[in-house]
From TrEMBL:
UniProt KW Nucleus keyword: no
Any one biological process term the GO annotation gives: glycerol catabolic process
Pfam families, A to Z: EIIA-man
Lineage, opening ranks: Bacteria, Bacillati, Bacillota, Bacilli, Lactobacillales
Protein name, per record: phosphoenolpyruvate--glycerone phosphotransferase
């Protein structure tokens, strides 16, 4: 397993579960965890689910991607409750995660990955 991993957070449980299926096609050795929906699996986010996904990830350093609004807010809260280093990216959700996963798989450095993600930044 790689040192860098990925966490995905979406308001929709099916989206959070589906994107890892795509990413594992290009990055089978990257630990990818996800958190989708509220605790009741409704549309929304859950800080508890996000924290669990962070802790379940086998990597010691995580690149975090999210869809909208409260996903980022809850990710920020969860990062304060873990010892893992978590980097949040304001990048296009699917494209950013796919780019990061493929580059982690290819053993590209974090600084180089961040250069690639810069062009995918959502403003």
């Amino acid at each position: 397993m790689k040192k860098l991993g990925i966490i995905l957070v979406s308001h929709v449980p099916d989206i959070a579960r589906g994107i890892p299926q795509l990413l594992t096609q290009v990055a089978p050795n990257v630990s990818i965890t996800n958190a989708g929906g509220t605790n009741e699996n409704d549309i929304g986010t859950s800080m508890e689910k996000i924290l669990a996904a962070i802790e379940e990830n086998k990597a010691s350093e995580l690149l975090a991607f999210y869809d909208i609004g409260s996903s980022k807010m809850n990710l920020e809260l969860a990062t304060e409750m873990t010892d893992k280093q978590v980097h949040l990216y304001d990048a296009a959700f699917v494209e950013g995660a796919y780019t990061a996963a493929s580059l982690i798989e290819a053993d590209v450095t974090l600084s180089e990955i961040e250069k690639q993600l810069a062009s995918l930044k959502i403003k």
